[in-house]
């Protein structure tokens, strides 16, 4: 009732159901038996998704519900900061406050919540930096996209055990850490698009053998595509559009059997082989606005000359022709020769 009094807008009339002594009948509230007393009944879950409630704070509300296991409040108008008192909720394993008006720093209270598996704070106004420790938690889902985080991608990014990792639409800088290859046993979807990420694509990215989606579009990545990407045999959607990538597309990448969308438009690639051309014909590969002669809808010669007039290079160039997996025999014959020729030309 104290929380109800802080609500300043309730267009759907949700709080009209919050009457009487049985909270378990209130809309959005769900009861269950607490883990330490199966004969009792307690408030175990709150689901406010889409309720369009407005309140200046949640402080003094969910942190006062010691048995709470799930709190979902997507698409409301809650604001303020996330109270550090939520760290006392020992059973909370899903926290979703996405698409609200929360602000302030990253809610560091979650770093001590050992039961938390699902954290979704996207589409808010959090600022500052994300503590690297969050990538060492037992989280299975980490959505922090569409905020105002400004920092270098932490070196321990690959320590994450998350299945779904979304950092898009912030202002992350620096290169994709090589440690990302250490997350090979967990990561399935990674969204890094619309940041300020620089550097070359690490060879270790090819270790993500279970990943089905990797999106790093609209950043400042440069260099060639490493052949190790040809090991991503479960990949369905791969996006590097809108970067500063160049060179020849590795044919082994275009031979991945599960690809439904390979987006490489708005880069500076100069050569494409027969397997990749087949993907273009099938509508899988998008290579518009590159520097490939005799291919439709490419950059002008002036744009390409201006780009290549500024020499670029990547550290450890030999790694771009390495494969950390077995590939079909038809791919083995041209991998080394194509990339060796490219590397010789660049050097």
Automatic annotation (TrEMBL):
Its main location: secreted. The keyword NAD does not apply. InterPro entries: Leu-rich_rpt (IPR001611), LRR_dom_sf (IPR032675), LRR_extensin-like_regulator (IPR051582). SUPFAM superfamilies: L domain-like (SSF52058). It is found in: Secreted. It holds the Pfam family LRR_1. The keyword Mitochondrion does not apply. Keywords: Leucine-rich repeat, Repeat, Secreted, Signal. One of its GO terms (cellular component) is extracellular region. This is Leucine-rich repeat extensin-like protein 4. It comes from Pyrus ussuriensis x Pyrus communis. The lineage of its organism: Eukaryota, Viridiplantae, Streptophyta, Embryophyta, Tracheophyta.
